[in-house]
Amino acid sequence: MRHRSVADLMTPTAVSVVPGTTFKEIARLLHEYDITALPVVDEENRPLGVVSEADLVRHRATGERPGTAGGLMSSPAVVARPEWSVVRASRVMNRARVKRLPVVDDDGRLVGVLSRSDLVRLFLRRDRAIQEEIVEDVITRTLLLSPSDLSVEVVDGRVTLSGTVRRHGLVPVLLRLCNSVDGVVGVVDRLRYEDDVPAGK
After folding, report:
1. Does domain 6-122 have CATH number 1.10.1040.10?
2. Could you tell me where the beta strands, DSSP code E, fall in the chain?
3. Is 125-193 in CATH node 3.30.1490?
4. Domain boundaries defined on the chain
5. pLDDT (tens digit, 9 = 90+) per residue, 102-147?
6. What is d(CA 89, CA 112) in angstroms, rounded to the nearest whole number?
7. What's the whole-model pTM score?
């Protein structure tokens, strides 16, 4: 069982700006590429910060003269790595209270951008793909249970588990693993279980 990685979901970087990029050029790029923010990079393509629509609006509201990316950006840049799981990236995004993360390689150079909307795509996974992952990875490979003893139904990302497991102690483990599958929005427990029978009984 494997969570999707940042590399699976990120948008490969098509556009970025440098600290000297003007207010007007930033606005033009945001409109042209239909995006809400741009990474600001140095001469070696390493992220320094992020400049967003909100930064532009906030600056204009002050009545100051239009600035440049270097003065408008939020910095330092909070970044992610391509090999991170999306769970880790989500936690970093939430902790830093940002809506997007520049993604950098081993040398710290920009290779993509992961946005909150990219993470939402996880919940658009097909129900059949979710079902197959639960049956093959969770039930069969991880818990070594027989898939014939359990029924897995997935509708709009909501998983319903029914059937019988050997021990009651397996139920919370099974539920937790199913909840951790990318694209699952909830799990309904309709499982039965057989109590452990003491040896010699």
Report:
1. no
2. 11-12, 37-41, 47-52, 100-104, 110-115, 150-155, 158-165, 186-193
3. no
4. 6-122, 125-193
5. 999 999 999 999 998 888 877 778 899 999 999 999 999 999 999 9
6. 13
7. 0.68
